[in-house]
């Protein structure tokens, strides 16, 4: 929480700032960039504790392909294929992965399919256009607190994540401009179709004071969120000591959550808009100072 998470420049935090890395797979990543400490003037209110930026691999050199397969205990299976390369002004990197395992506990199987694509094009001597698409769909059994009682044999959790982004960067002599647009979607569905009955938790010689009940929900509990974002940023090198950055951002957050058995799901919406300016002043070979400010309007919290 309180850390801004980007995927190729697209913010993917859930409303409120949290992000769950639980189903993230290392598919076609080139690098991970980390900013430690508060960086809210430049990256927004989610960045109170820092920033984590995942950058997709970009195609280099002649066209090439990769095929991998592996297996292990508990029916672990993973298959991965990718292609990448550069041709003239264009580059590409596309990969797909399928992972399955039964795990050790009953009703704890996991299956996931993930795809990732990065397409780039040079425009003239100074412009770069890039499109990225990432997605993964997973399903896992949720046996519950099996260390303290019988596992739930029918409960499952499904998750569907999608990220799409487009950016255009124009880098001139000492001045650069960047336009960005992105969409991050997360769909989560928790299912428990059957009533497995109550059980009395125990661990060793310790026994709970009362039984725990199962809570079946055949239609499931849904938690879907969308985060649509737009941004503009300009950077100017002033002499050898100043790097000035200024920009604006607009985000629209929407969602649908609640039990599908209810007549109507909750459908919250929120718009965030912000402008910012920052100066990074070089004081020495390994010392610099950062001074910045941000004005942001949030539908829930007003203007700060």
Question: Could you characterize what this model shows?
Answer:
With 304 residues, this protein is mostly beta strands. The protein is built from one helix and 18 strands. The strands form three sheets. It has a twelve-stranded antiparallel β-sheet with strand order 5-6-7-8-9-10-11-14-15-16-17-18. The longest helix has 4 residues, at 40-43.
**Strands across the major sheet, in which order?**
5-6-7-8-9-10-11-14-15-16-17-18
Structural class of the helices, strands and pairings?
A: mainly beta
Outline the low-pLDDT stretches: none
Total number of helices: 1
How are the SSEs ordered, and which strands pair?
Layout: E1 3-7, E2 10-11, E3 29-36, H1 40-43, E4 50-56, E5 64-72, E6 76-87, E7 90-101, E8 110-123, E9 127-141, E10 156-171, E11 175-192, E12 202-203, E13 206-207, E14 217-238, E15 242-259, E16 269-282, E17 288-298, E18 302-303
Parallel strand pairs: 1-4
Antiparallel strand pairs: 1-2, 3-4, 5-6, 6-7, 7-8, 8-9, 9-10, 10-11, 11-14, 12-13, 14-15, 15-16, 16-17, 17-18
Compose a concise summary of this entry.
The chain has 304 residues and is mainly beta. The protein is built from 1 helix and 18 strands.
Tag the structure with descriptive keywords.
304 residues, mainly beta, twelve-stranded antiparallel β-sheet, four-stranded mixed β-sheet, 62% strand
């Amino acid at each position: 929480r309180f850390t801004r998470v980007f995927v190729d420049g697209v913010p993917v935090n859930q409303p409120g700032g949290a992000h769950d890395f639980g189903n993230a797979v290392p598919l076609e990543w080139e690098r991970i960039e980390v900013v430690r400490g508060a960086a809210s003037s430049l990256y927004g209110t989610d960045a109170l504790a820092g920033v984590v930026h995942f950058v997709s691999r970009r195609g280099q050199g002649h066209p090439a392909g990769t095929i991998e397969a592996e297996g292990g205990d508990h029916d672990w299976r993973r298959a991965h294929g990718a292609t990448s390369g550069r041709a003239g002004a264009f580059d590409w990197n596309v990969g797909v992965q399928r992972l399955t395992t039964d795990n050790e506990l009953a009703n704890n199987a996991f299956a996931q399919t993930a795809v990732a694509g990065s397409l780039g094009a040079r425009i003239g001597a100074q412009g770069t256009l890039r499109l990225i698409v990432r997605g993964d769909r997973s399903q896992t059994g949720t046996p519950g607190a099996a260390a303290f009682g019988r596992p739930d044999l029918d409960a499952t959790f499904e998750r569907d994540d999608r990220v799409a982004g487009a950016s255009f960067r124009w880098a001139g002599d000492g001045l650069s401009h960047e336009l960005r647009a992105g969409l991050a979607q997360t769909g989560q569905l928790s299912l428990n179709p059957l009533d497995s009955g109550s059980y009395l938790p125990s661990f060793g010689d310790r026994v709970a004071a009362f039984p725990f009940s199962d809570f079946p929900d055949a239609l499931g509990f849904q938690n879907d969120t969308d985060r649509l974002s737009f941004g503009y940023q300009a950077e100017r090198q002033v002499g050898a000591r100043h790097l000035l950055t200024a920009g604006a951002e607009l985000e629209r957050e929407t969602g649908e959550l609640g039990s599908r058995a209810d007549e109507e799901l909750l459908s919250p919406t929120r718009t965030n808009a912000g402008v910012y300016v920052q100066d990074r002043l070089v004081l020495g070979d390994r010392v610099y100072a950062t001074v910045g400010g941000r004005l942001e309007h949030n539908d829930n919290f007003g203007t700060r």
